[in-house]
Amino acid sequence: TQEKVKVRKAPVSYKSPGQLPRESEVKQLKIYVDKKYETIILPIFGIPTPFHIATIKNISTSVEGDFTYLRINFFHPGASIGKEGGGSFAYNPEAIFLKELTYRSTNVREPGEISAPSSNLNTAFRLIKDIQKKYKTREAEQKEMAD
Amino acid sequence: MDFLEYADVSCEHRGSMQSGKLKLTDEKVQFKPHAKSGKADLIPPDQIDVVNWQRLAGSWGIRIFTKDGLLHRFAGFKEAERERLAKFFTQYYKMDLLDRELSVKGWNWGAANFNGSALSFEVGKSDSYEIPLPYVNQCNHGKNEVTLEFHQNDDAPVMLCEMRFHIPASELA
Questions:
Q1: Residue A27 host element (H or E)
Q2: Could you say which of A12, A31, A46 has the minimum Cβ distance to residue B106?
Q3: Which fold has domain A17-146?
Q4: How do residues B142-156 score in pLDDT, each as one tens digit?
């Protein structure tokens, strides 16, 4: 029997830790979007953690009162993997998947701050959308060429 | 070398790094935050279970896991400090400073390991991020799913409020 969904090797963000970006956002534990390596660096309790754009299904933002929220949804087994051409990578069936992350930041700018902390979430939202679009376009082109 | 002192390092607390002074003597590892409202930390050497040298908050850091299952992490070290710290830990605490390389693969799947009150994720054979369980405010589980909600921390420029995981059916059994 032939598998309908082609299982590919998962893309890798960085080959070595030396390639990790050293921007101030990473040190300040803010979100950083690395366009060159198509990777999002998300702060998880002190650890700037890379996630390749191919793992991200969709993102959304909302404003509630003084706060901006950024929600990142990842591909995971079940509803999403295989559909929309995303996430159909080789993985261990026993694996635990991170499905979703939500960040919150204040819209209130303190005296001395150039912009409110939430500007980091807004910038991240825009840049993630950008590289996701580029990645999807490229993937679609490659698929067309392969067919 | 009777003690080591770092006037400006930082200590991870609920997703933000609080700056302060770290002093290591033969009797204790002590962190004093610069801000009065900050959280101090004191670790007796005989309570240390594991000590690691790893990347933390965009610089080098030490990760101390104590016998009571708690994580203590300090960042802001230069790479060259590794040797001095390793020597100190060996000489005074009879502990090896172990290198802990973190995964940079960028995958959102892996294995979860509970160790004391730390939940660490392994991505492609290396450790990745970890969640100190005292930071969890609420935990819910549904079908093949676990949601963790974290305590608020307005000191974090971007605060992680929630994480949701897909748990394979075999793990639930």
A1: helix A24-27
A2: A12
A3: PH-domain like (2.30.29)
A4: 989 999 999 999 999
B18 neighbourhood in chain A, CB within 8 Å: none
User: Any idea where the domains of chain B sit in the sequence?
Assistant: 4-99, 111-172
Put simply, whether B76 touches A (Cβ < 8 Å) is: no
- The helix (H) or strand (E) run that includes residue A98 is strand A96-106
ipTM: 0.95
Domain boundaries, chain A: 17-146
| CATH 3.30.420.40 holds for B4-99 | no
Q: Contact B160/A17, CB-based, under 8 Å?
A: no
Q: Do B73 and A27 touch (CB under 8 A)?
A: no
Q: Which of B17, B102, B107 to mutate to test the interface with A (most CBs of A within 10 A)?
A: B107
Tell me the three state secondary structure of residue A136: helix
Cβ-Cβ pairs closer than 8 A, A with B, add up to 164
CA A96/CA B58 separation, integer angstroms = 26
Same fold across B4-99 and B111-172: yes
Class of the CATH-defined domain B111-172: mainly beta
Q: Are B159 and A103 in contact (CB under 8 A)?
A: yes
Tens of pLDDT, residue by residue over B65-112, are: 999 999 999 999 999 999 999 999 999 999 999 999 999 999 999 999
Residue B58 is encoded by which pair of tokens? Answer: 């965009």
Give B106 or A8, the one with higher predicted confidence.
B106
